[in-house]
Design a protein that fits this description.
By secondary structure, this protein is of the alpha/beta class. The protein has 2 domains: about 270 residues, Rossmann fold (3-Layer(aba) Sandwich); about 150 residues, Rossmann fold. It is built from 19 helices and 11 strands. The strands form 2 sheets. The chain has a 6-stranded mixed beta sheet, with helices on both faces. The protein has a 5-stranded parallel beta sheet with strand order 4-3-5-6-7, with helices on both faces.
C-alpha cells in the first residue's frame, strides 16, 4: 500500500497547477446549464449535490487520479476486511462489522426488558466523547418512541452536568448506563461514582448497565449487566456497537436495526461504486481540494433540521480526532494541511450567528448543507426552512449580482458548498448520513497518509491532569 507523502504524487502537482486559476462557480453554471443535475449523485437514499463547488471536470479527474496514486482500492479492501490498519495501536478497525447484521441478541433482550418493565422511568447515560455524542445524537434526532422512559446524558465531569441530568429523578426508578471501553475513563468513572453515591444504599446491580471491554472492572464496580465493546471499535465509531444501547432503549429495537441497515447500504455503496459516483469518496476528494489547494482551513456543517442540531458536534469529533494529525503513518511530520476545523449550527439559528463570516469574511470556509425533503410539522414553516437552505447555498455561490451595490453590502460569492439531501429524518436515513461521513474521513486519511483511528494527542492533557492531582490542591 502507498505510504509516501501525497504531495510527492504527480496528481498532487497537477492539482496545484489547476489551483493557480481555480474555476469560478458562476462561470461553471453559465457554461453548463445542466450543471445542477450533472454535478449530483444519488445513492443509498441520499442525494449529494456538489454543483456549488469550485470544481470542473479537469479538477475532478485529477482528484480521482490522486486517489488511484494513493492506493485507495487496496486500503479500502484492507479496511473492510478488518485488517489491522490502526498501526500505532496494532488493532483492526471493525466498526463496519458491528452493523453487518442486526444488534446482538443479548443487547436486544436487555433493551426490550428495560422498555417493557415498570421499574425504570429515567435512563441517565454516562460517557464522554464518542461514548456519549453518538447515542445523544440518535436520541435527540429521533426521540423516545413508544415508551414513557426519560433520557438524560452526562458527559462532563463538571458536577453541574450530572446534577441537571438527575434533577427531578427518583433514585429507585433511575437506571445508569456507563460507557467506557476500558472502564478507566476518569471523567466517566467520576460521574459513575457520584451516581452510586446518589443512589445511597441501593444495590448498584439493579441500577447500572456497563458497556465496556473490561467486564471484571465493571463487575467490581457493582454492575452485573455488562455488554461488551470490541477492542477494535474506537469511541467515535462506537454508536453501532453496544455503546448504542441507550439509543436502542429510546427508539426501540426495530428502529435501531433500521439505523444499522441504513449504514450497511452506504457501506455497500462505498465498497462498490466508482469514485466519480461514490458519494463519500466525492465528499473526501472535494474536501481535499478545498483544504489543500484552495486553503479552506475550516468547514461548516449546516443541518437545516432541528432534529440534526447535534450533528456538528458529532462530526467535530469524528473528523478532527480522526485526521487532526501532524505526522503520517510512518511518523514523518507532514508538510501539508490535514483536517480542517469543523464547526456548525442548525439552520436557521446559525444564520444569525456566523453566516456573516461565511458570506463576507476573509477566511476560506467550505460548507455542507444537510436537508430533508419531507419535514414534520407546520407546512408553512417547513417551506420557509427549505427556502432558506437553498437561498443561503446560492448566496454563498453567487453573491450579489448588482454591480452598483455599496461595498459594505457586497457579497463576493464563489464560496464553496455542497448539499446532502435525505428523503426524511428517520432511523435508516440517520444511519446512512453518519456512515457517509465515516467513509469520507477514512478516504481522506488514505489521501493524507494518516492513521485515522488513533488519538494520541488526547492523552497528554489526561497525563498532566493526573500529575496535578497527585500533588494535591493548593
Amino acid at each position: 500500500m502507498n505510504t509516501q507523502s501525497p504531495n510527492r504524487c504527480s496528481a498532487w502537482q497537477a492539482l496545484r497547477a489547476l489551483a493557480a486559476k481555480p474555476p469560478r462557480i458562476a462561470d461553471q453554471f453559465a457554461q453548463d446549464p445542466a450543471r445542477a443535475s450533472r454535478c449530483a449523485v444519488e445513492a443509498a437514499g441520499v442525494r449529494y449535490d456538489f454543483s456549488r463547488q469550485r470544481i470542473d471536470t479537469g479538477v475532478l479527474n485529477a482528484l480521482v487520479e490522486l486517489l488511484r496514486q494513493r492506493g485507495f482500492d487496496e486500503w479500502r479492501a484492507a479496511f473492510l476486511k478488518g485488517d489491522p490498519i490502526n498501526s500505532t495501536e496494532k488493532r483492526a478497525v471493525e466498526h463496519v462489522a458491528q452493523r453487518a447484521g442486526n444488534a446482538s441478541l443479548v443487547m436486544r433482550q436487555l433493551a426490550e426488558r428495560v422498555r417493557a418493565g415498570r421499574r425504570v422511568r429515567r435512563i441517565v447515560h454516562l460517557g464522554t466523547g464518542g461514548s456519549s455524542l453518538g447515542p445523544e445524537l440518535v436520541v435527540d434526532a429521533l426521540g423516545a418512541r413508544d415508551t414513557a422512559l426519560e433520557f438524560r446524558f452526562a458527559a462532563n465531569v463538571d458536577p453541574l452536568d450530572l446534577e441537571r441530568a438527575l434533577a427531578g429523578a427518583d433514585p429507585e426508578s433511575t437506571l445508569f448506563i456507563v460507557v467506557s471501553k476500558t472502564f478507566t475513563t476518569e471523567e466517566t468513572l467520576a460521574n459513575a461514582r457520584a451516581a452510586k453515591h446518589w443512589l445511597g444504599a441501593r444495590d448498584p446491580a439493579r441500577h447500572f448497565v456497563a458497556i465496556t471491554g473490561n467486564s471484571a472492572a465493571a463487575n467490581a464496580f457493582g454492575a452485573t449487566d455488562v455488554l461488551p465493546i470490541p477492542d477494535s471499535v474506537g469511541g467515535r465509531y462506537s454508536i453501532w456497537s453496544a455503546a448504542g444501547f441507550g439509543a436502542m432503549c429510546a427508539i426501540g429495537v426495530g428502529a435501531f436495526d433500521e439505523f444499522l441497515a441504513g449504514a450497511r447500504e452506504v457501506d455497500q455503496h462505498f465498497a462498490q461504486a466508482v469514485p466519480a459516483q461514490n458519494i463519500p469518496v466525492l465528499m473526501a476528494l472535494i474536501g481535499v481540494w478545498n483544504v489543500n489547494f484552495l486553503s479552506a482551513g475550516a468547514h461548516a456543517i449546516l443541518p437545516y433540521a432541528h432534529a440534526l442540531r447535534l450533528l456538528p458536534a458529532y462530526l467535530q469529533q469524528l473528523e478532527m480526532e480522526s485526521n487532526g494529525k501532524r505526522v503520517d503513518r510512518e511518523g514523518r511530520p507532514v508538510d501539508y494541511a490535514t483536517a480542517p476545523v469543523l464547526f456548525g449550527e442548525e439552520g436557521t439559528v446559525g444564520q444569525h450567528s456566523f453566516y456573516q463570516l461565511l458570506h463576507q469574511g476573509t477566511p476560506a470556509v467550505a460548507a455542507d448543507f444537510v436537508v430533508a425533503a419531507q419535514m414534520a410539522g407546520d407546512a408553512e414553516r417547513c417551506a420557509l426552512l427549505a427556502a432558506y437552505a437553498e437561498a443561503q447555498a446560492d448566496a454563498l455561490a453567487f453573491g450579489t449580482t448588482d454591480s452598483q451595490v455599496e461595498p459594505h453590502r457586497e457579497c463576493p460569492g464563489n464560496r464553496s458548498s455542497s448539499t446532502l439531501a435525505l428523503q426524511r429524518i428517520d432511523a435508516r436515513n440517520l444511519g446512512r448520513l453518519l456512515a457517509l461521513y465515516e467513509h469520507k474521513v477514512f478516504t481522506q486519511g488514505v489521501i493524507w497518509n494518516l492513521n485515522s483511528f488513533d488519538q494520541w494527542g488526547v492523552e497528554l492533557g489526561k497525563q498532566l491532569a493526573r500529575k496535578i492531582l497527585s500533588k494535591g490542591r493548593p
